[in-house]
Amino acid sequence: MKIKKSLAALTATVSIMTLATGCSSSGSSGVVDTQADKGLAVMGDTITYDPNYRPPLWKTEKEAKEQILWGLRQADLVKISDEEVQFLWGCSPEQGAERVLALGAKLVMVTLGPKGCFLKNAQAEYRCGCPQVRTVDTTGAGDIFGGSAVSRFLELGKTPEQLTQEDLAYMARYASAAASLSTEKSGAIPSIPAKEAVLQKMQETY
Question: How many other CB atoms are there within 10 angstroms of residue 14's CB atom?
Fold first, then answer.
């Protein structure tokens, strides 16, 4: 089974490489692209992964689960939604985070929609809610959450395993505030808020 993936910054010198699962274009199933699997082991210092599950893109739920689980096993840092946790295991966000860590990830970020997010690594965990906003369009909010969290991760300059609860709180609050603010405007790219606006929202909320 060929995996249709989007790989960003596919060089040996990058600090972050992003893996996203898409749909199977061949229609076959049962075999993972082993060349891609080997390549992921040597490219990039940190691999991030967002399943971004969209049912219409998959021929069967079984195939979707197989490829998402494959992606989870490759990643160091995972952003996954509570709905995707339910789809894979039918469990709580906290239990889902434990399962992702057991697959090899070093940091898990579970988004909870309007309820906020839950972040966990081997030594700490943190949960927070979302700021109150006037929602107009939720398009791209999940991606803005993920990108904002990764940008704060890079700013901290630590490995996923080294992040403390204080670090997780900073990432969670910033990403939640950024994602919430993005829903006040239409469109995915135009709605990305400036860092100053996000920090101000964090001060007002947390």
Answer: 14
The most distant pair of C-alpha atoms in the chain lies apart, rounded to whole Å, by: 51
Residue 81 pairs in a beta bridge with 111
Residue 8 backbone dihedrals phi, psi, to 5 degrees: -95, 145
Q: Which two tokens stand for residue 192?
A: 């990305």
Count CB atoms within 10 A of the CB of residue 144. 23
Is 173 in contact with 202 (CB distance < 8 Å)? Answer: yes
Count of CB atoms situated within 10 Å of the CB of 179: 30
Cα–Cα distance for residue pair 93/97, rounded to 1 Å: 6
176-203 pLDDT, tens digit each:
999 999 999 998 888 999 999 999 999 9
The tokens for 21 are 């699962």
